[in-house]
Design goal:
By secondary structure, the chain is α+β, with helices and mostly antiparallel strands. The protein has 6 helices and 20 strands. Strand 1 and strand 2 (9-11) form a beta hairpin. It starts with a strand and ends with a strand.
Length: 313
């Protein structure tokens, strides 16, 4: 099923391996047990030999022992270094994509796919965690109309910014799991619909403290139905193109109820954050595309159980 490596050497007798991811975090966590000693700082890797693919690669940060013959290990992919490092850096009118690549080199983080941007950054960062700076740079690119529908990951052993992936071949697995839950064969199913994130008025204001310079878009029908719910974004309008379109796109993304699903299912490494799955189940009044926001994988010798959270997009 999978192969396991420590410092690029294949190892056996890896017991109860598991790993998890989340759209909001840089570091995917993993854990396992075994009957031999491994030093902290060692590199742990899960590979799928059939596809010759790295499923997860990271650093062992902790270990514990409560039995004489079994040791428990845990750690994170290389997002660990994004979370742990503090930054002192100055960018003088540099492309945001180049700034992210430069930060990876400066803090010895392997760097993979970083989509190029036209948006630029001119700023000084100090006394900030690297994760905070990355998040701010990605958010700035998104506000300027770039990096739409992307997620970040270090699961393959390098930092990458990737587009959401639509995987129709997983929809049958998910739909079958939802159908069988009717017979209580899956106990963890939870479907939730919420208006907590709904916004039906969007204001984009100039950060130059000129309150008369702002753009507002709203949906009166939605306001009539759900009440007035507004969000405000503050931008430098002199460096941001097509503010009206940006506001309209924000309204389109935010002006809707959020349907989310949580359940456990038999699947594999392909079911991870950033994956979009089409689901059509009239019995639950569910039809549309769902984004995986987090997943937890528990692996045995015979199966892989995945607890997954999805949100309609």
């Amino acid at each position: 099923m999978y192969e396991y490596y420590i410092n690029n050497k294949i190892v056996k007798n890896i017991i109860n391996p598991s790993y998890s991811d989340d759209l909001e975090t840089y570091a995917n966590a993993f854990s396992f047990s075994t009957d031999f000693e491994i030093e902290a700082g060692s590199i742990f890797e899960i590979r799928s030999p059939e596809e010759n693919k790295t499923v997860l690669k990271g650093v062992i940060t902790d270990y514990s022992q409560n039995r004489r013959d079994i040791l428990s290990y845990s750690g994170y992919d290389f997002g660990f270094y994004i979370n742990q490092n503090e930054v002192i850096e100055q960018f003088s009118d540099m492309k945001i994509s180049d700034a992210i690549s430069k930060l990876c080199r400066s803090y010895q983080i392997p760097c993979g796919t970083i989509p190029q941007t036209q948006a630029r950054i001119k700023d000084i960062y100090k006394d900030r965690r690297l994760s905070e700076v990355f998040s701010e740079l990605i958010a700035l690119a998104q506000k300027k109309g770039e990096y739409k529908d992307v997620y970040f990951t270090c699961s393959s052993g390098k930092f990458e910014i990737l587009s959401y992936e639509r995987k129709s071949d997983l929809s049958a697995i998910m739909s079958e799991a939802l159908k069988t839950s009717i017979d209580n064969t899956i106990n963890s199913l939870n479907i939730k619909v919420s208006m907590n994130e709904l916004k039906n008025s969007v204001v984009i204001a100039d950060n130059k403290e000129n309150l008369s310079k702002k753009v507002t878009v709203r949906d009166d029908e939605s306001i009539k139905k759900y009440g007035f719910l507004q969000t405000v974004e503050v931008l430098d309008m002199s460096t941001t193109n097509n503010i009206q379109k940006l506001a309209q796109n924000m309204l389109k993304d935010l002006n809707k109820l959020i349907c989310s699903i949580e359940l456990s299912v038999l699947s594999d490494y392909r079911l991870h954050k950033g994956v979009i799955i089409p689901i059509n189940l009239p019995v639950y009044k569910i039809s549309g595309d769902f984004l995986v926001t987090s997943s937890t994988h528990n692996i045995t010798k015979t199966k892989e159980s995945v607890t997954v959270a999805l949100k309609m997009v």
